[in-house]
Amino acid sequence: MENKVMSIGVVRELTGLTERQIRYYEQRKLIFPERTKGGNRRYSFEDVNKLIYIHQKMQEGFNTVELREPPKPRRRGCAPA
Amino acid sequence: MENKVMSIGVVRELTGLTERQIRYYEQRKLIFPERTKGGNRRYSFEDVNKLIYIHQKMQEGFNTVELREPPKPRRRGCAPA
DNA sequence: CGTGTAAGGAATTCTGACACG
DNA sequence: CGTGTAAGGAATTCTGACACG
User: Where in this chain does the record put each HTH merR-type domain (chains A, B) (predicted)?
Assistant: First the structure.
């Protein structure tokens, strides 16, 4: 179910998080909801699971950066010897 | 996915139907979305599939009554001899 | 019967900011 | 850093009605 079909209100109910938290985790690049033409967010069930996982880890002491998805393997710096 | 999570707008996109049709099929007892506290409809993926099926049958000539789910087997009238 | 539409209101969501720590 | 909140606006959805056929 990677179909982006849920509004933030439904996600709020499903995850138990606040809209503030949900939007913040998006701002921190932890989730990537789609947008309607009007600008409203649309989430998938995967997003919901991810949010639950994220919040659990947060309570265990992780911060948003540590929970970020494995970034694209860009190679930079580390000049060769 | 019998989880009622989609707003009518998403259902409109997924089915290709108009909101008018979607609401009308509900009025005719063909689908049964839930409601938010505020009164907004929430549909499941099952509802979406059902709507697509319904509309297809409609175009084949069926009417809303004929497409109604098998009604509860209530017994009435038909006085015994 | 099944569907389109204009009308007015209400629920939902959005952004940017101030706050705290 | 992560989250709460009040503020104002905009997108979304709701109902009941008129229309056509």
Answer: 5-51
Tell me whether residue A69 is in a domain. Answer: no
Q: With contact defined as beta carbons under 8 Å apart, do A5 and B48 qualify?
A: no
Query: Six-digit token pair at A66?
Result: 């540590």
The Å distance, CA of B64 to C1' of C1, is 9
pLDDT in tens, A1-18: 899 999 999 999 999 999
Which residues 14-73 of chain B have a CB under 7 Å from nucleic chain C? Answer: 18, 20-21, 24-25, 28, 36-40, 55, 58, 63-65
State the pairing for strand pair B41-42/B34-35: antiparallel
* Domains of chain A: total: 1
Nearest to A4 by CA among B9, B38, B35, B54: B9
